[in-house]
User: Fold Type III pantothenate kinase from candidate division KSB3 bacterium.
Amino acid sequence: MELLFDIGNTHTVIGLHLEDKSFQIWRVGTKSFETEDELFSRLYTLFQVSGIEREDITKIGVASVVPSVNYIVTKLGVKYFHVETVFVTTSTPVFGIEYHADYPQEIGADRLANVFAARKDYGENVIAIDFGTAITIDVIQAGNFIGGAILPGFRMAMLALFANTAQLPQVELQIPDHSVGTNTVDNIQIGILKISILGIERLIQEIQRETSTEYTVVATGGIGKFLQGSSAIFDTYDPDLTLKGILYFLQEAR
Assistant:
């Protein structure tokens, strides 16, 4: 079995690729472990509940945007599973993808994983949108990565507004069906959620116009499911897009 880590700024998604090709998935706080021993302790408990032995793990693949955690996961692989840990990078060719970016080495590993999975599962012209702590938009044209965009995630924007104002409350992630707010909660939800969605929709339209290409638009990330029915711009929601990309990279990097 392949053990996969999608290490984000806030949460780490741990995925186990099972024999039936599905994923067993757990989510833990990235700051909840500071050593390989603490991480294994968390894993051991999860494995016991699911009836998994550590000898079942044959490979470890990682997409990390938190460099300080990379050493911990590497040590975990050596100490407890006796396997090499493979990190997602642009240095290993995957599906013949070329990176038309000024500095390919700066592309986040989570974004790379999304690109790999989007390319393999959804075709040559795909826009992958990951609704995480930050929202990332990655564009694949003719099978190659041509760039994208990054903007603050919804929770980040809401927390920033709440933390830096004296009287504005925290609000639920709910998109109003109207565009003129009649109370403070309404105003915030429209100002952060609805404007962000409208901005993403417009950006996708501009990308299609600039590149003269029609794209399949794939959403992922925990909040992506919540947005699935809120905009016609999204063609599909794939909750496992990043984990699948890590898996594909691990398979290609053999």
Notes: Strands lie at 2-7, 11-17, 23-29, 59-64, 85-87, 126-131, 134-141, 144-152, 216-220, 236-237. The chain has two domains: 2-87, 124-240. Helices lie at 36-50, 67-81, 109-122, 154-163, 184-211, 222-227, 241-252. The mean pLDDT is 91.
